[in-house]
Records
---
Amino acid sequence: MSGSESRAQAVHQITNREPIAVKKPKSLEKIWATDVFTLVKMEEALSKKAYKAVKKTVETGAPLDPAVADLVAAAMKEWAMSKGAYYFSHVFYPMTGATAEKHDGFIITDASGKAITEFNGSLLIKGEPDGSSFPNGGIRQTNAARGYTAWDPTSPAYILDTENGATLCIPSVFVSWTGEALDKKVPLLRSNAAMNEAAQKVLKLMGEKEIAPLNSSCGAEQEYFLVDANFANLRPDLMLAGRTLFGAEAAKGQQFDDHYFGAIPERVQTFMQDVEIKLYRLGIPAKTRHNEVAPGQFEIAPYFEAANVAADHQQMIMTVLKTTAKKHGFVCLLHEKPFAGINGSGKHVNWSVGNSTQGNLLDPGNTPHENLNFLLFCGAVIRGVHLFGPLLRAVIASAGNDHRLGANEAPPAILSVYLGTQIESIFDQIRDGKIDGVDEGGIMDLGLSQILPFDKDPGDRNRTSPFAFTGNRFEFRAVGSNQSVSGPLVAMNTMLADSLNWIATELEAELNKGTDQAAAVIAVLKKLMAEHGNAVFGGDGYSAEWHKMAVEERGLKNIPTTADALPALKSPEVVKLFDETGVLSPRELESRFEVYAEQYVLSIEVEAKLVVDIAKTQVYPAAMRYLSDLAMAGASMSDMGVELDNRVAQTVAEQSNAMMSAVSKLAEAMEKDDFASEEEHMQYCANDIRGLMDEVRSHVDALEKEVADELWPLPKYQEMLFIK
Ligand code: ADP
Ligand code: MG
């Protein structure tokens, strides 16, 4: 079958597909967290004393007695087996950002050969996957490959129920034999502890008597594309690289703004419901769903949770989206930029910190100018973004996200912070030394008798900022759709810990001078704003003026590519930040740089190979067939005495030649392997390799517009984006 026939067949299959039925649950309660070993289930299964011990660990992170772990293990096994699970798995989150699992059976045999099951505290607490195949950035030599997974009781165990059977999944950390972090969870837990410690100091100085442990919260909005599998399977670039490496723009893109919040297509809605049912069973509070800006683009957002649990849940959401899409005949694309020229996908990470005694410390309340705790914590974030902007850029750096940042409707690669008019004006006043007054939201009265008046927010939203205050939390909007949220959460918690430590020192000095509390807070924040206020920006982050002003007047950095961004992980400030807060040792941090740099290089190498392959084996043959068709038509017309205009043939020939010479240059460039450093290798990929890939693409896309549609082998943008 020729490429074009397969395209036609794909359309046929899509239009004639049988809809998939999704069995709707009777009620939310019937399915909510049925597959999770929740505290409620533990309470039922454990003695009062054991349950109290576990609960304390879950809620405060206090250490758990190994004897209690034995009891939990027994109860967990019982529960899992009652749900049909005969296998368990420590689930962990290696530095690649993926989710990893190794399955072990509960089964063992006794002396008589009878099968019995076994699962105890030590099996629950510790696993030992053959970890040598996970990237470790030089922390572990392959000859010393031991790595351990260890149970994280603060994130609940659950059952993953697939067509292939049920498995008890135990969220875990992953460390080397030396105890060094090899994963994304260890630093997240440590960053939370560092933030808690620093916050306690500040709150104590503020005279708070009772201070519960602080935790960070996260609500992550996940954007994704759905493409029918019949099309995706015909695109090696989508299947292997997750994005289209070629594709001319469709006649209709997103210019009508008719997709955003539009009616959700029926087939997609069925898919979404299926996803939600699965997530509810896993205790993941999926809350919003809607169409996104680009055709074929959608979003799902769960209700926010404790950062550590939210991060684990976020990984599951990505898995559930992908597996459920398959069942519905879609491919779910989590790549940050699957299609050139239209919106990419992000993952806005909403983040706040709080506890049960002081509440959300980023909630300004009705009188923010009098809410000193809020002002201190908000100030701490401003300082963090200013001092560690390059770190925030580094933790969202990936080959995929580079295509999105600074492009269509995505935040720029300059880290600034948006506060909203009300809070910005308070911090402006603090900068001048005194708070005079504050804007209020007020009431929205539309003057329509049938519409009830409602409260208006004190400030508008700013969708152009990479890091925005949105009323009671910050929203890190530059995170990529395919990324783990852990890296960004670690960076935010850690920079906050550093700022709160600084604030504690300054505040203590002021208070020791005998300054009253409010004046001391203003004095500290005034100093903070003088040094770091430059990071606050409320204007249009997409504008060219801002790009110029940010760099030239404000001294902020514009960091366009991953190759430019990742070296921040080696900068003395960042090494010191992580070392002093105890979140990552210099060696652990260095290993992260190595792993991320390698991943970047590998991604671009895979793409470059695909560019060469597809251009040579699919595009060039199609162009040649078209040329020979044109030549034949020309010859037979000429026999009849009619000369055909040969401009099309000329263009096709020229573009084909140019494409093949760009392909040769790219293939040759890919041979180079003598790099002095990872930094140099990344720069080579970012500039030379990507430049040549773009060159090939420009010719392929030009050919797509010339070659007869029926000969074109690759599904086109209009097909993939609009046919559902
Ligand atoms: P929008 O698209 O308007 O930004 P959404 O409702 O899609 O908002 O997503 C907002 C996310 O922020 C949700 O996951 C929500 O639960 C989360 N969120 C709300 N309050 C907080 C908070 N205090 N801390 C962290 N996340 C929060
Ligand atoms: Mg949002």
---
Amino acid sequence: MHFDILTLFPDMFVTPFEESILKRASSQGFVSIDIHNIRDYASDKHHVTDDTPYGGGGGMVMKPEPIFRAVEAILEEDSSESPPIILLSPQGRVFTQKVAWELASNPRLVLICGRYEGVDERVRESLVTDEISIGDYVLTGGEIPAMVIVDAVTRLIPGVLGDPAAAAKDSHADGLLEYPQYTRPAEFRGHATPEVLLSGNHAAVELWRRRKALRRTYERRPDLLRLADLTEEEQAFIDSLRARGE
Ligand code: SAM
């Protein structure tokens, strides 16, 4: 997977990709990331990338020309692919684990980070193929959303996580939140690890985990249960929680 990230603040990306799993994913060749400074594609001598909005109002708007030129130059290097060109925007479709899986199926992604009051509308109209929001709030720029997407997508690439099945067991992978996790010591400040997890009985552990995942989702995110793929027995378990008023 190759990521091209277009930004006015390339230095923001120096350390986030240099730690832990993302660093290993990159050094082992699972991902490569190019950070492109939009300012380098401004044609005037002062490298201006923003201007005041037509119609008045405060703030600045990112000019279309440097963004178009940056994307065109990047894609010209390898015209064999037409990767998704994604604008990070609080007005985009909301990024979820499902969207992360969808993006992970591409060999290449182009991510455009907005700043200030956002980007000129013509970038949205005729350059980008997708707009993604990381949630219903407004950040100062698209750099952190771009990092969120790179992180969430990279860990789904086969081989990146030590345990190949780990991503499939995570929260949101199958529409449920994950079960509670424990590690040593078995007892900590009077709080014991559930016996079943120490029993060595794998079937009992799996059943306990599934029930806990169902209960946790029911308690914290009942909205997710509407779309979760549950067996009849699991649905009956949820119904019993509801009937008991838990
Ligand atoms: N005026 C814009 C609006 O109301 O829709 C918000 C602009 S915001 C201050 C500047 C940039 O930050 C945006 O162009 C976008 O790239 C990024 N951004 C802010 N919040 C975001 C979010 N929730 N998800 C993705 N990108 C976001």
